[in-house]
From TrEMBL:
GO terms for molecular function: ATP binding; lysine-tRNA ligase activity; tRNA binding. It is an enzyme of class 6 (ligase). It catalyses: tRNA(Lys) + L-lysine + ATP = L-lysyl-tRNA(Lys) + AMP + diphosphate. Keywords: Aminoacyl-tRNA synthetase, ATP-binding, Cytoplasm, Ligase, Nucleotide-binding, Protein biosynthesis. GO terms for cellular component: cytoplasm. It comes from Methanosarcina flavescens. One of its GO terms (biological process) is lysyl-tRNA aminoacylation. A motif ('HIGH' region) lies at residues 30-38. This is Lysine--tRNA ligase. Coiled coil: none annotated. Its EC number is 6.1.1.6.
Length: 537
């Protein structure tokens, strides 16, 4: 593998050319479920921040909840009754479930908890609190005074005509509470108030501190100046020619006298065949929901391994197992200090990990088998985990992995990944051939005489059946009264799955068999080797 510098380190090196003190910012509007497409922004920001810290920078990391933005429309997940709130700030709209302070907090709370579980801990700002505290007041004054200059920049960069009555500030109507239906009529810089007229028929004045907000294309560059942002990731929609970053660059420099932040433009995460995730269209899996299915370090790995400018295809079904396998192989190589692991892959692993993240020794795919063998019983799961050669000291992490697997089996697992251990020999055992029955009887004899057998040993034992002279091959030959039996390992694996599950296939045989107590396997294989429907009647 060719060693390559990781993209986060490339960004950090570029940023450090401009100085050692930096503020990495990310901002998402909590107007709907904050999904794993949004997660790309915060994980990308976190990776850049961690790389800056690793290189000795004086860096901080913030998240701004744009909770003073208006509700744009009645989204598919909302009842029609929310039509009356369209145009009002989402921090001033009732919570959909009634258990949070407001609409924005309903979506923000699970998102912030998800960040904690991902090991991401930015300082959190809420836009409504910043406006009310007067953090934007000077920027509002500047924008109001330089309204014409801002309008000229918007027209020159975006190519769109700015309406004659356009204003960079949106007052919040004292009567209807909307910020999308008002127009500025005048302002008083000394008194710090803005006069307005609203489409609802009301007019009046509002304070600059909390009485409204700057329009998005002005709010964003104002934020860079107010907070001193030097690095920020954002989606490709903002990076399009004439888009909000292009206009923001000029506004922050020419109007607010601040340098624009280093841009990290990222592509979308595509959800299976459904396309790009979007809260407004309903094509979404929330980060909180996904963390119930996937270990947090795997979700980080999904983002960290890919350059921001490349889109990510995410499918929580069968492809998820491939993703987890890939991460777990990387983890093993890193822990073993394997020389085949290059600098780039080592860095991918380092950035996928985070303080406080659980990391179970048990592979995800193996836990899928263990969970189903144990029928979800946690005490039984612990016994199997221990019997499989893993430590059970960190029960919390094992429990988290168990919950992940349980949810994945319920929501996303393909049919072939699911199985049900039959309490008695399945009727399908009647289809077993004589060689298959001889094999089951022979392996039962061998298992009975041995101590604990690992998954790898089970796997090798089954394959040894085809080797003339092996103990298992000799036993099969005796039972068939045939000195040179023709043994097909595929038929032997099939016999195992039929005798336990009543189906022709199942999970990886070694893991599968090592999940059972020896006594169960001996009894089941012996019963299956002599099974006939007549005996059962």
């Amino acid at each position: 593998m060719v060693d390559t510098i990781h993209w986060a380190d490339v960004i950090a090196e570029d940023v450090l050319k401009k100085g050692d003190k930096h503020l990495v910012a990310t901002g998402i509007t909590p107007s709907g479920h904050i999904h794993i497409g949004n997660m790309r922004e915060v994980v990308t920001a976190d990776a850049a921040y961690r790389s800056l810290i690793d290189k000795g920078a004086d860096a901080n990391f913030i998240y701004i909840a744009d909770n003073y933005d208006p509700l744009r429309k009645v989204y598919p997940f909302l009842p029609e009754s929310y039509a009356e709130y369209v145009g009002k700030p989402i921090s001033e709209i009732p919570c959909p479930c009634g258990n949070c302070a407001n609409y924005a907090e309903h979506f923000l709370k699970p998102f912030l908890e998800a960040l904690r579980r991902l090991g991401i801990n930015p300082q959190v700002y809420r836009a409504d609190e910043m406006y009310r505290a007067g953090r934007y007041t000077e920027a509002i004054k500047t924008a109001l005074v330089k309204r014409d200059a801002i309008a000229r920049i918007l027209e020159e960069v975006s190519g769109k005509t700015v309406a004659p009555d356009w204003n960079p500030f949106n007052p919040r109507c004292n009567q209807c509470g909307r910020i999308t239906t008002t127009k500025v009529t005048d302002f008083d810089l000394e008194a710090e108030i803005v006069g307005y007229v609203c489409a609802c028929g009301h007019s009046g004045t509002v304070p600059m501190a909390g009485g409204g907000k700057l329009t998005w294309r002005v709010d964003w560059p104002a934020r860079w100046a107010v907070l001193g942002v030097t690095v920020e990731p954002f989606g490709k929609d903002h990076a399009s020619k004439g888009g909000s970053y292009d206009t923001g660059k000029r506004i922050v420099k020419e109007i607010f006298g601040h340098e624009p932040p280093y841009p990290i433009v990222y592509e979308w995460i595509m959800l299976g065949k459904q396309g790009a995730m979007s809260s407004s269209t309903g094509v979404v899996i929330s980060i909180s929901d996904m963390l119930e299915v996937v270990p947090p370090e795997v979700l980080r790995y999904l983002i960290i391994r890919t350059k921001p400018e490349k889109h990510i295809q995410f499918d929580p079904g069968q492809p998820l197992l491939t993703l987890v396998d890939e991460y777990e192989r990387l983890r093993t190589l890193f822990r073993e200090n394997n020389p085949s692991l290059g600098v780039f892959q080592s860095r991918v692993y380092e950035l996928s990990r985070a303080t406080g993240i659980c990391q179970s020794e048990v592979p995800f795919k193996q836990m899928v088998t263990i969970y189903q063998v144990a029928r979800g019983d946690f005490d039984q799961i612990l016994k199997i985990v221990k019997r499989s050669g893993f430590s059970i000291e960190d029960k919390k992490c094992i429990k988290e992995l168990t919950k992940n697997v349980s949810k994945w089996l319920k929501l996303y697992a393909p049919p072939f990944a699911k199985f049900n251990v039959k309490e008695k020999v399945p009727v399908q055992a009647a289809t077993l051939s004589e060689p298959q029955k001889a094999f089951l009887s022979a392996i039962a004899d061998l298992i009975e005489t041995r101590g604990e057998i690992s998954g790898e040993e089970y796997h090798m034992l089954i394959y040894s059946a085809k080797d003339e002279g092996s103990e298992l091959n000799r036993l099969i030959a005796e039972k068939l009264n045939n000195p040179a039996p023709q043994v097909d390992p595929r038929e032997l694996f099939k016999a195992i799955y039929i005798s336990i599950l009543g189906q022709n296939s199942g999970p990886k045989a070694g893991w599968f068999l090592s999940s059972f107590e020896k006594e169960f396997l001996v009894e089941r294989f012996k019963e299956a080797s002599t099974y006939s429907p007549e005996k059962q009647e």
